[in-house]
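TOPIC: backbone geometry
CONTENTS: sequence, structure tokens:
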Amino acid sequence: MNAPSPRDLWHARAADRIAAGIDGRMLINGQRYNATDGQWFDCISPLDGKVITRVARGQAADVDRAVAAARAAFGDRRWAGKSPAARKKVMLAFAEQMRAAREELALLETLDMGKPIRNSLSADVPGAARCIQWYGEAVDKIYDEIAPTGRDALALITREPVGVVGAIVPWNYPMLMASWKLGPALAAGNSVVLKPSEKSPLTALRLAELALEAGMPEGVFNVVPGYGHEAGEALALHMDVDAVGFTGSTRVGRKMLDYASRSNLKRIYNELGGKSANIVFADFDDLDRAAATAAGSMFYNQGESCNAPSRLLVQEDIADAFVEKLRALTPQYAPADPLDPGTVLGALVDEGQTQTVMGYIQSGLAEGARCVTGGCRALEETGGQFVAPTVFDHVSNTMKIAREEIFGPVLAVIRFKTEADAIAMANDSSYGLHAGLWTRNLDRAMRVSRALHVGTVHVNQYDEDDITVPFGGVKQSGNGRDKSLHAFDKYTELKTTWMRIESA
């Protein structure tokens, strides 16, 4: 009898986990709760359209309860009052709990939002755990300051936690986006209320349990699942929330600023969308590597990445050859079962997102772009949400597929003549998150990098990354930075203490 395949083993684990029951209740003050009004929503897997579990549908009353718990925890200093070294110890234990639960978290992530299990295992869980660990290790190495005043005064500049932080995260990288907020906010001594996307809430709820098991005091880390227009809006409007870290669409980011103005002028840090340009100059002599990176970065996570290089600007001299290389690569990204460890492109998050992506594909065709490959749904017989990797050529930078964030596996190739043309096209966007450029000319690399109005420029690579560098953008891609030591700026306040020194 043949041994079960890795795919079969993952399906067996999934069936067992679902049969055992996945707790979808919110977690507040260390306890699980149903929604105050008893409402639920179905958590549906994009793999096959089946219900995984029911999740509590948080409302304003539930947000009130969670914020009250967070405020009480902050007020009695059960976490904020601990020394940095003591918080560090708990954060490191939290990261280890995440690593110990690696397979469970990866399975929940894949079932919930459709990404390949190989990515959940190799990137999402390790990356989230490293983030929590890194901020835990960093917090007892950040020093306060003494201002260079005269001899008759001592001026201290100290960082203090902002208080109660609302964290609202998207569905495309649920664990990673949550950890980018939780790491610096918790390490700095804040209390947090996390509102995960209703499309992918399961790992957030499990993370809160793991934090408790690691020794995080009750009330410090709370999770209220629910819809954005209900729980998310209530959290952003709450008068007792001091700051909100939001990652999501530019449309909702605008609402966050409005909510702040309508409430207590809380600090809003928006990490929003992108329409990143990836520029390939004719002097780059390894087109195979550039094409492989362009395809891999675009189709990773099904294209559901805010920094996806969805505008590929290729110099005219090499455009035909480059597009052919892309076309030849796309079979490697054929959608397949996300629970098969060999799959590299999984399912889109839900039917609504699939319809959105297909609408953009139809728009590209209607506006005259040439579909080189893809352009259709795939694996419809599974009941899942799969779209074939799609490449459009001869795209104008004015077309809808070049202007708007698609959040799916759709790549738009735009041809350019000169360096000046490439810079103008790249910057001709309402977004400013990431950009890439490929050249062997060092002067050009420096010139173009400086000219691109974005938060991150990748040179002769795309999407290489580390927790030590900031992530964020300019223009309508948001403000503030996740990751790196700079993230502490969002979740701390600077206090000046001025002491007069009397002469003897």
